[in-house]
Amino acid sequence: MIVVSEKQRFIKALKREPIKGHVPTFELVFFLTLEAVGKVHPDHRRYSQWNQMSEKEKRLQLTDMADSYIDVAKKYGHSAIFVHPNPNDFENIVRILETIRERSGDEYFLMLHGDPTFSMPDGKNMTEFTRRLYEDGEALKHEARAKLEMRLDFAERMLKYPGLLDGFALCSDYCFNVNPFFTPEMFSEFIAPYLQEVLEGYRSMGYYSIKHTDGNIMPIADQMVQCKPDALHSLDPQGGVDLKEMRRLYSDKVCLIGNVNCGLLQTGTREECEADVRRSLRDGMAGYGYIFSTSNCAYTGLSLDRYELMNRIWREEGIYK
Prior knowledge:
- With about 325 residues, the protein is of the alpha/beta class.
- It has 12 helices and 9 strands.
- Helix 3 (about 55-75) packs across helix 4 and helix 11 (about 270-285) packs across helix 12.
């Protein structure tokens, strides 16, 4: 019998190929590690004294972080792990990826953050960033180019460590629930060229790419798909993104990931949560090229019980017949 790894199943979904068994699942971030597997999430650990640690202490920390990712993936049937290196320098990025591979083999698809494009600014910077879009556009484009080259340089350096890294999650958010922050015209000028170029660069190096943004992506969805990511995440229903409509428009061009309503998981009734999980499975699994997940992530404060309800329904019903 041929054994297919979770990584292989994940890649088949990204390539929109037929698969058997469960529809792949993962979470872009799973912050509930302490409650779920008894370990603090790597992104929540402070290593101000990292450089003072002995090599043995560093190794123990790396092993514990690697196990936190692997334990979550095993417990919930995840096919992929989005790694948050901590500390986030190149040497330790390589070491945490090596440690995960040492302890799990080639079972899981491993990805890092890799988005050079501008995200919508926070409230503190929104006025100044908006002014620059109108008055200082050329300087912004120079910044965008520099960020792009930095990301591609990093990806090229990782090629010296074959088998460690499978792809990138591009996590710049572009949208509010109502509309994108960027008009379609601004998106085509300040975002799309750099998004397309980084995706082409990653693809040429053999990496897969998942483009994430919350909110209402519909006014810019055509442009995002034309940039040719392998997948779009998170298909946010709170932003009015309808999974059935996304399948109709784009399922022949891009893998779709997500759409379970995080708002309902947090504040809805149990019956509403169950109905929404089943809706996402039904609409997503109407064909191949779908990966099941929340419409954001398993964030701090989300009830683990609700996540495990979602996961149980996936185990029982998220199976291709």
